Amino acid sequence: MDLRVMGLDPNVIDTLHELLDFSDESDKSHHAPSRAYIRDSKAMAATPADVKEYPDAFVFVLDMPGLKPDQIKVQVEEDNKLVVSGERRREKEKEPGVKYLTMERRLGKYLKKFALPENVNHDKISAVYQDGVLTVTIAKKPPPEPKKPKAIQVQVN
User: For labelling, which of 48, 106, 122, 143 has a CA lying 20 to 30 Å from the CA of 87?
Assistant: First the structure.
């Protein structure tokens, strides 16, 4: 249920989100997933992406509207996992006499993780953000040279 539809003040909603957004380190239950895991899972499901393979590169295209370039992180973890993340928070504008009637634009965390193949070149990664779309390009390593057969000369004794 969206609390904004019920007419609650956006500041109250922000405060509720901040109160509920605490770590589960004190939670002793090992059976339920943590809030962080649930939040990340929802963010991954809500971040649309396309992945394209070209002869010389892999291209990852993600919709991340409303973010500024400094709010986006692109990382390669463990040499084989591309992690793209960002977070859009509502501006804390205090305009007297103004209240939201409708809030439909997406706020919150953006997150996507991709397993990278072994033939990516970790030294040739670029990211471009334009019009709310992030494009990450990772060059492929050149294919290995085919091994030439080794000729062994037979000696006569």
Answer: 122
Q: What is the pLDDT of residues 29-43, one digit of tens each?
A: 556 778 777 777 777
Contact 114, 77 (CB under 8 A): no
**Which SS3 state, helix, strand or coil, does residue 30 take?**
coil
Residue 105: helix, strand or coil by DSSP?
A: coil
Distances (CA, A) of 80 to 34, 60, 75, 129: 25, 15, 10, 22
| pTM of the full structure | 0.66
Give the alpha-carbon dihedral of 11, 14, 16, 20, to 10 degrees: -170
According to CATH, the topology of domain 50-89+107-143 is Immunoglobulin-like (2.60.40)
The set of residues, in sequence order, having a beta carbon less than 8 Å from that of 93 and lying 6+ positions away, is none
Q: With DSSP H G I counted as helix, E B as strand and the rest as coil, what are the percentages for the chain, rounded to 5? A: 15, 35, 50
